[in-house]
Design a protein that fits this description.
single chain, about 110 residues, mainly alpha, 2 domains, about 75% helix
Length: about 110
């Protein structure tokens, strides 16, 4: 698969990232409302707890729009840039484990 093909697949599967941005934006808006009309503690609690649900809520939104939100490309590869960015081989090991797990799951 060419990089351009993989990028196209990601843009298509995740609607260009718009659903994730919408979910995150609504969470931050709700937190700002709580900070304004509630307490800072409530706003922070909402951000922390809501942050755990950004990805599942994004996936739900994608499914409601009729998008699978799934990719055919190996997901562990996203660790590779961190090897160079941080200069830590630990990320290469994590990437290998994720790729092996993904590959084993397809066999």
């Amino acid at each position: 698969m060419l990089v351009a093909d993989a990028q196209r697949e990601v843009r298509t599967a995740f609607v260009g990232g718009s659903m994730g941005q919408l979910v995150s934006g609504l969470l931050w808006l709700a937190s700002a409302a709580l900070a304004t009309w509630g307490t800072p503690r409530q706003a922070i609690t909402l951000l922390v707890l809501g942050g755990f649900f950004i990805f599942p809520t994004t996936q739900l939104g994608l499914k409601l729009l009729g998008h699978a939100g799934e990719l055919s490309i190996v997901l562990g590869a996203h660790y590779l840039p961190f090897v160079f960015l941080y200069g830590m081989r630990m990320f290469a090991a994590l990437g290998k484990l994720a790729v092996a797990r993904e590959t084993a799951g397809r066999a």
